[in-house]
Structure formats: structure tokens, C-alpha cells
Amino acid sequence: MSLPDNSRASRVLSVERLSIDISHEHETQRVVDDLSFQLHAGQTLCIAGESGSGKSLSSLAIMGLLPKVARLPSGAILYQDRDLTELSDRQMSRLRGRDIAMIFQEPMTSLNPLMSVGQQLEETIRRHKLDEGSGAKRRAWEILDAVRVPHVEKRLKQYPHELSGGMRQRVMIAMAMVCRPKVLIADEPTTALDVTIQAQILELMRELQQAFDTALLMITHDMGVVAEMADDVVVMNQGVVEEQASARELFLQPKSPYTRKLLAAVPRLGAAVTLPSRAQAARVLEVSDLRVRFPIRRQSPFAPATEVCAVEGVSFELGAGETLGLVGESGCGKSTTGKALMNMLTYSGSVKLDGRELSGLQGKALKAVRRDIQMIFQDPFSALNPRKTVGELIAEPLLVHGLANAAQRRQRVEELLLQVDLPAAAALRYPHQFSGGQRQRICIARALALEPRVIIADEPVSALDVSVQAQVLELMKSLQDRMGLSYLFISHDMAVVEQVCHRVAVMYCGQIVEIGSCQQVLHNPQHAYTQRLLSAVPMPDIDHKRDFKALLQVDEVPDPIKPRGHRLPDIHYAEPQAGHFVALSSA
Amino acid sequence: MTLLMALLKRKSVALSLLFILIVVVAAVFAPWLAPYDPTEQFFDGLTIEGAPLPPNSDFYFGTDLLGRDLLSRIIYGARTSLIIGVVSNGIAVIIGTLVGVTAGFVRGWTGSLLMRFTDLMMSFPALLLAIALAAILRPSLWIVALVIAMVNWVQIARVIYSETISIAAKDFVAVERTIGASSLRILFSHLLPHLLPTILVWATLGISTTVLLEATLSFLGVGVQPPMPSWGNIIFESQTYFTSALWLVLFPGVAIIALSLSFNLVGDALRDELDPTLKGRL
Q: Which residues cross the membrane (chain B) (predicted)?
């Protein structure tokens, strides 16, 4: 008797020469072409690629959840010697959840908002006939405990909206793992989460995979996540497999030019040449003691009046031609700070632009100031009115301020389009005819129309693919060099911040906990939160896998809801180096 | 003009426009087009037993229960139905849009006040309200049109209100604020164009419901007063004879359906043509 072939024995699922067609009206488009891969027990395969690469459709094909317009002209998906593409809907739905489970990107929309966590888990358990009654309850408890959810008893009774994003994703994972599936498909499981939460979820998935010997198929666009998680990688582009290799090989010796391009475009923390600080530059924007509070409607007339302290005592300066990065996790108040500077919210404190006080301005005076400070939004799809042509959109600021007649406006639009590397003919087209990166260029052109001194960029590249991201960042930099613009660059992505910023401020719970040059803050972090944040960033570097275990326990974030008029103690800063300020903990 | 050409390219829309044109012409030139006086009761308009005549060479659409010429009544009825359908529905859409947009855009105190008033109006049974109003004011064609408008604006205001809120929350509205655009500019050049599809759909869908509501009011005696004909009251006068004199219900019924369908098709087509993101996809 020959020895069992090891690689064969552990193979759980294999996709053989799979192609997917999408037919729209009379046209048929091939969106996935000739894709083959194998999943092995206890191993992770990552499918990496940018948007439109067909990576998500491939995973949906395995689940038998392709949209109606999709067809499989060729190929097979073999699981336990059965071809999944030939199974009926009923047979497939018996496999789904029990043998092959899936986690989606957005945990809020994948959980039923009307059922408690416990009910949803028990339903899954009962549906796959794992257990009944009290047994199902016990299983639900066990699996939540296994995904390290604290206070399991309480969580079982809670509804999805009462949980944080990270907790929801843990519940999703618990639901997927409760039947101990052989294959777990995770479609961008951490994309919607903050870095520290992402690190927790990734670590959790690693541990569960070890414990349950699951084959993990991960779909992601983030090469950092790939490096942290993958044993093998498939790189896809426009439905075609560009490269298929072990993770080590892929990162150390990428063969296909596309992979090389993709890897080169990924911003790596610690790899960028830190930009020299511009401490000598004239100050354009001075913010001191900025506070933003949102009142909460009282539950009853007798309840004490409360408010959310979104931003508390934020102070910083921005020099001419300087980029200040404002980083932090969701809910830390970084976007609120940006909106306050744009006078889109009421705030207290002082904001000075070129020595002029902005706080409390209204009407004409405010309108005049708006010429000098402009904003770029995160989502270029919703920031452009779909019913206007690009030319109208870019000319809008000029029109509003009555700065030019029709002919001048047309000429200026042309200039602005050229400045952001778009053809002048783009003016006549509508936003939906452009890609995400091009739309963000249009947004930048519009922000530049009034020749502002300061641009507040709120996550300007977060919605874009990495290769496009790099181009937009390059454009922003070259515009800064040419026009001496100052940017307040709000971002959650440390690596991007390192690339474009001269200085960085780290926000946590509405306060700046650390501010200084890129070198100081990102390479020599002093505050515990900054250190934690930086240790959670996944690195696209196969030889330096990060150990996220330390991050796995959940920290309680201080409650931002305070009685109305409550004044938080002032923050005191230490200055370990010139220009590097670190908040001292109030204790 | 290019818009009209684009609309006429679609066969169904061209047909609808033609039908609307016919109804409008019929309404305007009724005295010249109608073969008889719509209120005249013909001696030979009934059989010996006193039953209405089916369509024949004298009366193309037959006669009604009192021996009046149905074709003439339908031609004159087009006046009533068109006035009710277009005018009262138009008023309803205008009031509804104004209230909805104001409440959704201004929000705050004014917004809640407007919407609570809308809810109050909504909680009245529409028919009861119409009857009450029509009973207080002496019914005439224009009063009936006004009464129907008063009842119908409520749903439109609700829909426009929620739509305004969702559009006002979009980033491009925030961008306008950061540029320094005034509220009026945002309202007219960035909000209203997005509300247009909804407004158009209501403006066209509403026509059929208003025509029917007018018929109901006529039937209850608070609508257009007989002997003045309207498509609605022709149906209601003769509905009990539906099985024995089908033509009495069939012709005005077809007229109502065809008119509201035509308006619907034209409205749909207008919405598609005015939306740049849909162009080229068809």
C-alpha cells in the first residue's frame, strides 16, 4: 500500500477552469476567465485584486449565489467529489452554512436587525439540525465565547444595532463557524473596520482556522491583509488570473508585471521618505481649543440634558505649503474637526485663517472666507451632482461667487481640467461616465476653482483602488508644489499619511493625543494609543508578519456622552522633542 | 424641441401624446364637435320600453338612460375631466411639493409644524373631507377641482418630504455649502432637479385618481352637478345597468383609463429623458 498523498488528502475544495459570463441586454461579458485553485484544510488562500477584477463573483459562484444575469459557461467546482455547479438549489442550500460558510463585508446589513444575536445563532443551529432547545442555546453561548465576545450572556440578548462594528463582525464569524464548516469564504471581512479592530478580527480568524482546521478563502484588495493571512495567493485583474503563487513567492519574487505594479503602488508604513518638516513656513491656519458638541434629545423631560463631546480642545497650526495628517479611528472626531473648520457645524474655540477669525462668521463674510478654504470629500460618487455636466460642476464655485462671465468660466474649467490631468472635453460629460479616480480629480478641480489657500481633504483616497490612490496622491502633491497649497489630510490609513504628510496629529476620543513630524509620530510614537494604532497596521511584507495577539482583548472606549455644559479637564502635553507633543494621561 | 423629438421616437409615447391632444381638442371645441346637445333628451333616444339605445347610425355611442346622446356627453365630459384632472391635480402637486420641500429642506421647527399639519390632514378620511368641503362651498366645477386638490396634496407632501431629506444629506449638497452657495441656489439647482422624477410620476399618476375621485363626488351629489356631464358621473349614473347596457360604462371607462395611461406613459418618458444618467443605457 502506497503512502497517502498528503496534499491530496487535505484538499477540500477545488475550482477547475471556472469562467463566468454576465449577460446584459444582448451583450455578454466574460467577468471571470479560466480560474482554477484549490483550498486545503487549515490553509488560507487569498484572492487579491482591485475593483472589477471578478474576485467577489468567484466566491459567490462557490456559494451558488451568483446573480441571475450570470452564467457559468465552463468549469467545475469540486467539493467532496461533487460538482457544485450541477447541484440543485435545494441541495446547494443544504450545503451552504453547514459545509461552506461565508462572511460578508458589511456586518450590519448581513445581520437581521429584528432578531437578537442569540435568536439568529440558534436559528442557524436549528436549521442545520445541530441541536434543539437548550442544546442550541448552549451552542450559541459556546461559539460566541470562542470568537472572544466579552459578556456573552448580555450579548446574546442584544440586537445588531446595539453592537459595535467589530462585535458585529465577530457575531457574523460566530454564525459562520457554528456548524464548523469545511470551507469559510470571507469577502473583504475587515474592509469596513478600523485598523485595530481589523487586527483583532484577522487574529481571531487565524486562531479559529487553527482550532477548526477550516479551509479559508479570503477575498481582499488589501495587500497588507494578504501578507498577514495568506498561504497561497491568486492575483486577479479584469477577470483574468495574473499570478498564482505561494504568498512568500508572490511578495519576494512577483512574476507578472501587474502584481509588481500592484505591490509597488501599495503604500508601506515605514517605507516612505519622510517629508521635511516645514516649521519655518508662515502659518496659514491656526486652530485653538476647538470644541464641537452635539446635543442629544432627552428621553424624558426629567432626564438630565446630555450631549456628545465630538471634539474637545483641539489645537494645531498649519503652515503654508504644508500637509498635516489627522489620523484616528472612526468616531474619533477627525471628520467633525474638518467640518467645523469649514463652518458646516457650530463650534466653540477659535479658527484663524491668515489671521482672520472664522468662528461665528455668517452670510457675506463667511462666503468671502470660503474662497480660501475648500474641502474634498471621501466619496467622489456622492460628492458630484449626477444631473450636472462636469463643466457645470467645476464652474459652480465661480458662478456662486460671480467671479467670471460665461466665456471666462469655460476657459477656467478647461485650465482646471488640464491641471488635474483630464482632457478638456471632459467638461461636456456627466460624472457617471467617469471612474472613481477620475471623479476624485473632478472634485479636486472644483476645489481648486476658487484658488484656495487651504484644502481640507477628508479621506480623499479611501474609496479608490491602490493604483488609482497613488495617482491621486501624486496629483495632490504636485498641486501643492505648484500652488503652495496647505492640506489638512484626514485619513485612517497610516501608510498613506506617511507618504503625503509633513506632520501628523493622532486623534482619540475627540482629542489630539500626539502631534509632531511624521518621523517623530510614526517612527517614534510616545503615546500608548499611537503605539497601539501603529502596531495594528497590516504590512505588505511577508517576512514581518505581525503578532496581533496583544490587541485581541477588547478595550472599553470612554463614553463620549456627557451632561450638558460639562467641561473635560484640559489636556496637558509633554514635549519630548522640539515640535513633538504628547498628551499626558490625566491620571 | 429636441426633447419633443426624443419623446416622439417612442411609439407608445407618440400614441399617448396623440390621445391627449385629441381629448384636449375635444374639450376645447366641444360645441362644434359634438353631434348633439349633451343635455337634450331625445324622443327617439329610447326604445318603446324606455330602454337606452345601443350604438347605431344615429347615435354612434348609443344613448343613456334619459335618451341623451352618449358621444356628445363624453365629448363635453372631457372638459370636466380634463379640468379636474389637470388643474386640481396640478394644484395638489404644487402644494404638496412646496410643503414637502420646505419641510424637508428647512427642517427644525418650521419643518415639524408643516409635517404635523400634513399628518393631521392625512388622518381625515379623504372622501369625508371632500364631502364636508363641498357641502360648505356651493359645488361648481372649480370648487370641486379645488376640493380635490385640498385632499390630494397630502400624500405628495409626505413623499417629497422624505425624498428631500435623503437628497439633502448627499455629499454634493454639503459641497455646495462649502462653496458658499445660497440655500435658494441649492434648492433650485441641486434639489429640485432630483425631485423631478417623483413629481412627474405623481403628477401623471394623480390624474387618474383625481378623475375617479371627481366621479365619486358626483355620484354622492357633491361633485359636478347634473346635467353637466363628466366621465365619472356618466359611469355612476348608469352603473346599475352595467349588464344590460354595457356601452354606457364601457365608453367613458375606456376614456378615463386611456387618458390616465397616456399621462403615465408621457410622465415616465419625460422622467427618463430628463435624467442624464439613464441616457445611452436604453
A: 12-34, 82-105, 117-136, 142-161, 199-224, 244-266
